[in-house]
Every structure is written in structure tokens, then in C-alpha cells.
């Protein structure tokens, strides 16, 4: 169950990061509320996952899901650039997540 919590925590991280961008420095109330609610949910689920999973594994996977997800949202939804260097960096992050998951007990 810890991995399910962690997956949803990571997905909520993507939501809050995107909403924070759309809040324009917390000047847009709707996006600001989404940011606060999604970040709270993300932290709660991360905490539940950490009951079982090692800190390093849980935190790395959580931030990795958020980073890769935000990268993808940035490109496909916000029109950010997908340079070769950025894509390689995302692949390296994804590789790190897979390695961390594959070497973790729990």
C-alpha cells in the first residue's frame, strides 16, 4: 500500500506544482487554493508511505514523479521547450527512480 500512497503523492505533487505556476505568484485565488490543497494531500500521502518505505527511497521517488510529471505538463500544457538537454535530464531522473524502486525493500 505504501507504493500506492507514494504514487498518488507524486501525482498530487504534479498538480500542486502546475497550480502554483498557474497561480501567478498566488495572485489567482482558484489556482492558489488548488496549490495548497494538493500540496497538503501530497505531504500527507508521502508521510503515510514513509511509515514503511525508507526515507531516501520515498523522497527520491516522490520528487522524481513530481519532476518528470511537471516537465511533461510544462512541455505539453504550458508550451515550455523540450530541448535535448532537458529530455536527457528527465531520462536520467526517470532512470534514478527506477533504480531506487528496484533496490528498495518494502
Plain-language structure description:
GO terms for molecular function: transmembrane transporter activity. It is a multi-pass membrane protein. This is Guanidinium exporter. The chain crosses the membrane at residues 33-50, 57-77, 83-100. One of its GO terms (biological process) is xenobiotic detoxification by transmembrane export across the plasma membrane. This protein has 106 residues and is mainly alpha-helical. It has one domain. It contains four helices and no strands. It has helices at 2-22, 29-49, 55-76, 84-102. The radius of gyration is 14 Å and the shape is flat. The N and C termini lie close together (9 Å). 27% of the residues are buried. The mean pLDDT is 94.
Jot down its keywords.
single chain; 4 helices; 78% helix; 106 residues; mainly alpha
Mean pLDDT: 94
Spatial shape: flat
Report the order of strands and helices: HHHH
Strand content: under 5%
Spatial gap, N to C terminus: 9 Å
Number of strands: 0
- Tell me the count of domains: 1
Q: Give the helix/strand class.
A: mainly alpha
Largest pleated sheet: none
Short description:
GO terms for molecular function: transmembrane transporter activity. The chain is mainly alpha-helical. It has 4 helices and no strands.
